[in-house]
Amino acid sequence: SNSGQRYKGRHPSSQRHDVNPRRRKSPSPRRGRKSSREDNGTDYDSVNGIRDIELNLGVNIREQCWLIDSGATTHTSCNRELFTSLDEVSFKIKVANQKFVQVVGKGDVHIPGLGRIKEVLFIPEIPYNILSIIKLKQRC
Prior knowledge:
Number of helices: 3
CATH architecture of the domain at 66-138: Beta Barrel
CATH class of the domain at 66-138: Mainly Beta
Number of strands: 6
Radius of gyration: 25 Å
Order of helices and strands: HHEEEEEEH
Strand content: 25-35%
Shape: globular
CATH topology of the domain at 66-138: Cathepsin D, subunit A, domain 1
């Protein structure tokens, strides 16, 4: 029994719990992993999440789906087959991971329920088709 011990300051049972994340008893599952910005610029958490969706739904998002992005300033596609018209262009743009990617075409795509989407950039090296909310708002 500790009844004979004296405590300086507060009794241990009345002390505040330490919520400092650096003092967790169980290790964080992220500990030791590089952030997506420290490696080659790929946001692996997002990519892995999308891959999980593809597996669960049995679809290939790269070929069939469009991701809606509130931060994108332009529509982009990685799938040549989605374009109803395409002009060859050649320039680079900076994407979300701060890397520059080569744009090889610009044209129109048809999306069921939305109709014709103009000025979509064809960028084979991006992983997904992206619709820009900013550009969609300009259509209204």
